[in-house]
Specification:
The chain is mostly helical and 151 residues long. The protein has two domains: 48 residues, no CATH class; 100 residues, no CATH class. The chain is 64% helix and 0% strand. The chain is built from four helices and no strands. Helix 3 packs antiparallel against helix 4. The longest helix has 64 residues. The chain is rod-shaped and about 105 Å long.
Length: 151
């Protein structure tokens, strides 16, 4: 079976279906050899998948907070609602944003654990330096210093 269109006197649409057949509609002069239907579909797909990087990227250049990720998701939703991005691409980007949010949660937990480990190390150093009798006094002075810094 040949997929080449036979020569005919009519200017027909050059769109080729997945099974190899060609469209039989007359070509529209404004759509480069495509009929009105296939020409408008082609125009929508090129406008739909426009470059959204500048819109979806965070202003700082890196997603540092959950607010920046949520702002990017809001812009992604607007692009999907405006039919400027395919649902498949939007779903992929939303999944990546979900993974970024999960990573942020893990990083926060890791930072809290590191902070707690630092306090444990400080407590151990106080024990080693001052011994059990003087440790409470040193801890009291440290607590007073922390409360004064917060003011």
């Amino acid at each position: 079976m040949t997929t080449k269109r036979a020569d005919n006197p009519y200017d027909l649409c050059q769109f080729q279906f997945a099974n190899g057949k060609c469209c039989g509609m007359p070509a529209h002069p404004n759509y480069d050899g495509l009929c009105l239907n296939h020409g408008t579909i082609h125009m929508r797909t090129t406008a739909r998948e426009d470059d959204l990087y500048n819109e979806l990227a965070s202003p700082s250049g890196a997603f540092l907070s959950q607010a920046e990720i949520n702002q990017s998701l809001r812009k992604l939703y607007e692009a999907l609602a405006g039919n400027r991005i395919s649902p498949r691409r939007a779903a992929t980007l939303a999944y990546i944003a979900y993974l970024l949010l999960q990573a942020h949660a893990g990083l926060k937990a890791e930072a809290r654990l590191t902070e707690l480990q630092g306090f444990k190390n400080l407590n151990m150093l106080l024990k080693m330096k001052y011994g059990p009798p003087l440790r409470k006094e040193a801890e009291k002075r440290m607590a007073e210093g922390v409360t004064q810094e917060k003011r």
